Amino acid sequence: xxxxxxxxxxxxxxxxxxxxxxxxxxxxxxxxxxxxxxxxxxxxxxxxxxxxxxxxxxxxxxxxxxxxxxxxxxxxxxxxxxxxxxxxxxxxxxxxxxxxxxxxxxxxxxxxxxxxxxxxxxxxxxxxxxxxxxxxxxxxxxxxxxxxxxxxxxxxxxxxxxxxxxxxxxxxxxxxxxxxxxxxxxxxxxxxxxxxxxxxxxxxxxxxxxxxxxxxxxxxxxxxxxxxxxxxxxxxxxxxxxxxxxxxxxxxxxxxxxxxxxxxxx
Length: 266
Known about the structure:
Elements: E1 6-14, H1 33-45, E2 52-53, E3 62-72, H2 78-87, E4 93-101, E5 113-122, E6 135-137, H3 143-150, E7 155-158, E8 173-184, E9 187-194, H4 201-213, H5 221-228, E10 243-249
Parallel strand pairs: 3-10, 5-6
Antiparallel strand pairs: 1-3, 1-4, 2-3, 5-9, 5-10, 7-8, 8-9
Helix pairs in contact: 1-2, 3-4
């Protein structure tokens, strides 16, 4: 009798500071989130499990709303996929939810949009309790000017000037639906939602916004950088520490949970 294969989606949270990015590497000694998750799932399924994710995050980047899917012939309930898998994961990774999904669901290709948050802490001293979970800037930043500058990037544009040299995407065209900068006590939060992102795109956007916030560039400078389509005209790439993948949106018909956006300290 042929075993029936079930497709399951998971919501995953992780602290990326402990890993060399999301994607599994050929060298097993290099720790990645995908490698840790697949190992844990394979223990519960008692068979090799391979996952597909909504967005591959870089070294040091965190995730509070990552979504993956996998297929397995193992008969396990959603509770087993959550609690059982978590028991085999390092403390920096946790499965938040599990849902059985239809065969036409794909964590990456079914996604309507991705949302990232970049968290900046302004103050004379870096907070020890949030080490590697945010970007620290000693001087105050002009949030109003940063938000004004961010609006120049809304809509569909060629983001070549915000694209890393190693990006393998076939096109630099991306559509940003929302981009805002706001202050929450000592934190400055850059919120960006788009249909998809280029390699280091969010970090390069934040790098440019930091130039504006520090008063070294006017708000409309970002529009000029965008028009050049030249990465060399942009600012330094912001650090990965403050970056979080916080949500991936899907059509309602898949019935996936919608959780409060992270990170938890905001």
